Task: structure prediction
Amino acid sequence: MAELPLVIIADPVNPRAIEMLSAGPCRVVDASGHPATLPAQLSGAWALVVRSRTQVTEALLAKAPGLRVVARAGVGVDNVDLSAATARKIRVVNAPTAATTSVAELTLTFVLLLVRNLYGVIEATKSGQWNRGVHGAELAGKTVGLVGYGRIGREVARRLRAFGAHVVAFDPLLSKSPDDTPLLSLDELLLRSDVVSLHAALTSENRHLLNAERLARAKRGVCVVNVARGALIDETALLAALGSGQVGGAALDVFESEPPTQTALLQHPRVVATPHLGASTPEAQHRAGEQVAEELLRLLAGKEPLYLVNTEVAAAP
Result:
């Protein structure tokens, strides 16, 4: 009798996901507590489950000659060498809807903190000051430009409209807005927006999308939110724009290097910084684990996955 396919869990996932897989037609090995042993565990693996910690490089894939699936329990797959996986006909699946609500809510938190200029006054009050002057403004009536208008961008827009904000978007992958949100060029969006919020995947073409030249074109005093990928912003240019007042404030959950190395940016009084926790809610993590478990179970049942990233690879096992 042939052995059941082996699924290796490389990074910590929701225990419910492991229960789901363990009840299916496969063997499951949880190697998440011992990352140094992962390469040795891969020799007989059919599937590899990762979050963001494990870097799925060509060299790591070479340790798994029988690997057929990489499942990313999250949205971004920039820690997976898609070219190497595709060349090996290894399917890469993810959980693109798992963190939508959590990231959208964090975005709104950031927007409100920046527009109302609350971060500094919160810190001042905690230090014993009592500064009751005018702080910031209302979000109602402001224009928020969303760079990237996929699932998360649309959820952010829906929440922003509840506050009375005007929403515009830039997304080169869309020829028409799915919900009548005005689609603008990036330059026009920057010129019109009081807040610019990034919701795009990182590609080789959009690295440093917000650079010194583009920040200079933006509306003076613009606030910048980044909950997507750190390298979408040139951090040196952002720091300079904060210093000149061209950028009024920034809220950053992601950085080009993580943990971040640009300490001057972190310490700037008009920067709110968090440690890449947009998807770090119990709800989002539970959904991510369960979604990738469902994808693997679909494949084991001979069905096509719902969330195949490298669509060049045939979906059938």
